[in-house]
Amino acid sequence: MLKLQNLSLRYEKDQVLRDVSFEVAEGELVCLLGPSGCGKTTTLRLIAGFEKPETGQIIIGDQVVSNARHTLAPQKRGLGFLFQDYALFPHLTVAENIGYGLSGRAKKEAVKQTWEMLRQIELLDHADKYPHELSGGEQQRVALARACAPGPSLMLLDEPFSGLDTSLRANLRRETRKILKDQGVTAIMVTHDPEEAMLMADRIVLMRNGRVIQSGTPEELYNNPVDPFAAEFFCEVNHLKGIVKGDWIETDAGFIANNGQPEGMSVDVLIRPEAVTLGSETFDKALSKKVRVCAVNYARGTSHVRLGLGEEQETTDHILARHQGSFNSEIGDRVQLNIDQSQTFIFPQKSEP
Ligand SMILES: Nc1ncnc2c1ncn2[C@@H]1O[C@H](COP(=O)(O)OP(=O)(O)O)[C@@H](O)[C@H]1O
Ligand SMILES: [Mg+2]
């Protein structure tokens, strides 16, 4: 449905996008995810036709809508928009706001579509209210309905929840995903929040410094990150340095099985906290090591245990473990460290650009 091919763009001297390529299938919800300033909004603006690429092209359906020579006007692209600073028309009712984009249609059809959208966002009882009489979450649902009402072929959402309370966000994410799916709309949503992307996306396109680092399902990105950045973006990860010694990689947390890295190579070893278990059960004796308990915090049913890797009590080298339930060891105790290698990622060390 949408193809971005080798897009690059620069503002004056700043190269903002470099060789950006990805595709979105019909009906799919794709999240563009990455740290602030990595080029997500710029990518959306290119898709919308507000910017022109320096190289590369954008194809919607089977039409080239942007390349270096020509850009199809935004209003001819069949798009719907929902941005953070969405504004409902304050002097129009909820129903009038939703019907706003339908003014070109037959009256009867416009009314029918407005009521259908009101039903979907479960605000039928609020049709005659004005925006200021609604909660923030309700306003956001109306804004989404207004954007969906004309039946856009592609919906672009830029950080649509970032102005809202955390408590509202969880519900709105679920509702927004449901509305987009019920409408069968193809959508691209920008967010810098990995949890939001994980919860909402069919597929995630992860960006950094104007490049696409990796794209795939949330599960693929979590379980098979392509580099340390991708591994660390989704949750706190233990990051150790290692040296390859035959079938093993030696790290401060003990030996990790080598996954084919050449002898003597310096590698980054990333271990998710849930892969670290403590106590007597051992996956493999060779992989385990005695460590010292430095701190224990208990939150939401899980103990977060910080373990010192060095010999001294005041060591600065730590590894973080997540232990289900409460953890019955005292600070200073020595415990057995075991690492589940399926949640351990090994990358050749390279200097970052
Ligand atoms: N109109 C502009 N002129 C110059 N630089 C810009 C402009 N818009 C964005 N940038 C720069 O481009 C980079 C990417 O911006 P943006 O796409 O908004 O990032 P994101 O949405 O991922 O936070 C940033 O470094 C930003 O400062
Ligand atoms: Mg942005």
End-to-end Cα distance, whole Å, is 33 Å
Indicate the CATH class of the largest domain.
Alpha Beta
How confident overall, as mean pLDDT? Answer: 91
Q: What's the domain count?
A: 2
| CATH structural fold name of the largest domain | Rossmann fold
Globally, the shape reads globular
Unreliable stretches, pLDDT < 50, 5 or more residues?
A: none
- The percent range for helix content is 10-25%
Query: How would you describe the oligomerization state of the chains in this entry?
Result: single chain
Number of strands: 20
- Portion of residues in beta strands equals 35-45%
In which order are the strands of the major sheet placed?
6-7-8-3-9-10
The total count of helices amounts to: 8
Work out the radius of gyration.
25 Å
The bound ligands are:
adenosine-5'-diphosphate, magnesium ion
CATH architecture of the largest domain: 3-Layer(aba) Sandwich
Helices and strands, in order, run as EEEHEEEHHHEHEHEEHHEEEEEEEEEE
- The computed structural class is alpha+beta
